[in-house]
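Example with several molecule types.
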Amino acid sequence: MAAMFSQNPLMNGPNYSFNDAPRTAAPEGARQHRFDPYTDNGGSTLAIAGADFTIMAGDTRLTSGYSINSRYHPKLFKIGGTTADQKDATIVLSVVGFAADGEALKERLDAICKMYRYRHGKPMSVKACAQRLSTILYQKRFFPYYVYAILGGLDEEGKGAVYSYDPVGSYEREQCRAGGAAASLIMPFLDNQVNFKNQYEPGSGVGHALQERERKPLTRSEGEVLVKDAFDGAVERHIEVGDGLQMMVITKDGIEEVLLPLKKD
Amino acid sequence: MDHRPQAWGRPRDDVYGAYDHSYLQNSGPKQATQAPIVTGTSVIAMKYKDGVVMAADNLASYGSLARFPDVKRLRVFLDSSVVGFSGDVSDMQFLDRHLTDLSIDEAYEDPSCTAAPNGKGHLNAANLHKYLQKLLYKRRNDFDPLWNQLLIAGFDGHSKPYLASVDLRGTSFTSPSLATGFGSALAQPIMRRYAETEEDAAKLTREQAVEVIKECMKVLYYRDARSLDRYSIAVVTKDGVELKEDEQLEKQSWAFAERIKGYGTQTV
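Resulting structure tokens for the full complex:
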């Protein structure tokens, strides 16, 4: 299960996220068929926090091995609205990894946020929801939810907030994060384009004298273009990513949902 | 003659020593299904304009042995939904009994539900799918899985055609066309030619959908070694379920085979 926590393709061998390596030969008759409770359903997610908005995105393909099970299986969920259609929700959860665990996690967090709303008469803050999600994940430390979750919303000051998680509940607030099958393809692109990593002021000197490019928050339209570009790139290089791009933009006025086409091959 | 039936058929104590009764006790760890034994192959289904068509052959295999050639693998639920089972047949029978109990409970709660298939407040296909997903996911969490992949067809809460799948790990998804097992490789590409999107599926007539499904069953029989030419086909409409359980594959022809070159024994 160690490979499960590794996002590093070199540790698992240069392959896809499902195991297609030949099985080590066992003596005939000694073969024990064990039930494996996990699979990887592929797909990728992405979140960017802006000054007064948060963009959450995920592709809509659901795979198992080389098969595409569904071309429309959303990975983004509105959390903690008062009704089933989540019209008044303020928080978005994205889950990628093992789809059944993702579904179960989403339903638990949603139920908890709803209970909070009924008990306290106000929606849960992203900060509180983020801590609670970490607790939920850690409660299953020894039979984890095999999902990379990202939680997005607006913080108490109205600034964009993105919280990212590993399967056992370690979490951190970040400016941006990519998760899932193509995380290793998208994250470096985001480092460069959102946090301006490895970008320097031209002619500002050499070596340590080089000045980093000044960081400033993205505008909403810049963020949306970045998301589309990131996914178009991932679709090209990863077979488990494609079909559709589901995007949710969280602002003080609510959550806007956009669905864009991606390559279906 | 020993007149105690408990001793019949056992090694004689005077020859072999006292019989070790501990073998009859079931005191070890609980045994869960570790592998499917008697299995059903693919189930295929696709949506059309005003309903869903589903099919599965009538074979239950024991490994490579065609063991039970008359096993019905499509099941009607409350006259309004169909569940198609692939995978372990004993787990299918368990689920079948469970669904019977559930539908009886439903009928007691609301006697009108059997009379009016799409009445409000009655367990529709979307509800049934959610129920089965929770059941299968619970069993995988207990490490005691029900070794099946199910397709559920019917209508959702908005009276739109509904088709979804659940597997032994509780993974569930929906699509305009779905297939389990071998069907996901052989039948799904054919079905997607006609129903790539929901919009495409909403244009298909019942006759077209049935035709595509029958064609897929034929392709599966040609290439799936664990399949049979007798099959069940169900059409779910707003008026209920029309289930035919003893259909025969028609118009089979291997004429296409002579045009295939470049693999197998042929070298040119």
